[in-house]
Amino acid sequence: VSFGDLRIDDDWILDALYNEPLRIRSYLAHNLWLEIHQPHYLDIKPFAKAGADVIFVEVFLNGKYNGVYILSEQVDKKQLQIQGYNGMIRGELYKAINWGGACTFDWLPSYTNSSRLWGGYEYKIPDESEVTNWDELYNFTDFVINSSTSDFKEDIWNRFNKENAMDYYIYLNLIRAEDNTGKNIFMGKIDVGESYFYTPWDLDACFGTDWKGENDTKTNNILTNGFFRRSYAYNAGGFKTDVGNRWHAYRNNILSTESLETFFDHAYNTLINNNVYDRE
Q1: Of 53, 62, 186, which is closest to residue 124 (Cα–Cα)?
Q2: What is the pLDDT at residue 57?
Q3: Helical H runs in the chain?
Q4: Handedness of CA 12, 16, 20, 21 (dihedral sign)
Q5: What is the pTM of this model?
Q6: Are 206 and 200 in contact (CB under 8 A)?
Q7: What are phi and psi of 101, to 5 degrees?
Q8: Are 39 and 82 in contact (CB under 8 A)?
Q9: Please, which residues have CB within 8 angstroms of residue 256's CB and are 6 or more apart in sequence?
Q10: How many helices (H) and strands (E) does the chain have?
Q11: Are 126 and 76 in contact (CB under 8 A)?
Q12: How far is CA 10 from CA 1, 2, 13, 67, in A?
């Protein structure tokens, strides 16, 4: 089945929003990422989406009102249009579920292909029934952490999509998603020879609250990780310059103060006008 403009599927996520004071942060963050970023491979995969789309729903369980949730698509092979396993690994997808040296690019832990967990990541694609092989992601992480300055500057954007990196870096700091600098990220590539990219998930701790729903008043530092730190410090491929130019361009249209205020107002007024806060 399908709901609203979400994809047709039989597998859904219901997110209770219990730790969001206004119940709008996850909804806004998911939608804002889809507004900002489009997959860099749309020319060959025109049905790909950059992340999970979401809609507001109200949940009743066995006649009992549970409150407002967001209904979410999955971040998976179908959503990202990742090539499946055919006797060899083509597309890859890894889900960062814990703080680990690999997903933050701070240190390089050893790995074993007998485990679906490594360095904060959970192996998602290929499926466990097909194969587990961390070699590609390990080698990329090793390159980010340990390559020479000249090699990093010359080759990083052949290994990771620069457009995606710039958009995610801006997005991360715009919504101040402190929990999404290493954990709560998907790392993927659609096929052999393609570049890696980021997709966010679990976006409840942003726009001024932490994962517990409490106020986070920090506004004067930059959220980053080892990958972004090195790209920025070396201005690899003009990364530092291009991020600045991209930020200013976004601030003149899609991320202008007026646009962001309208974005917030729409979500808040949707819940107000449907008496959701009264029911909760």
Answers
A1: 186
A2: 96
A3: 25-36, 77-80, 135-146, 149-159, 162-174, 226-233, 239-251, 257-273, 276-279
A4: positive
A5: 0.95
A6: no
A7: -60, -30
A8: no
A9: none
A10: 9, 8
A11: no
A12: 6, 8, 10, 22
Token reading at 25: 């942060």
| Lookup: tokens for 256 | 């202008």
Give the type of residue at 204. D
Rounded to a whole number, what is the distance in angstroms from the first to the last CA of the chain?
27
The structure tokens listed for 43 are 């020319």
pLDDT mean by block of 10 residues, the chain; 280 residues: 92 94 96 97 96 96 96 96 96 97 96 97 97 98 98 98 98 96 97 97 94 90 97 97 97 96 96 95
What is the amino acid identity at position 79? Answer: Q
Residues, the chain, total? 280
What tokens were used for 219?
């506004």
C-alpha 233, offset from chain centre: 23
**Separation of CA 219 from chain center:** 21
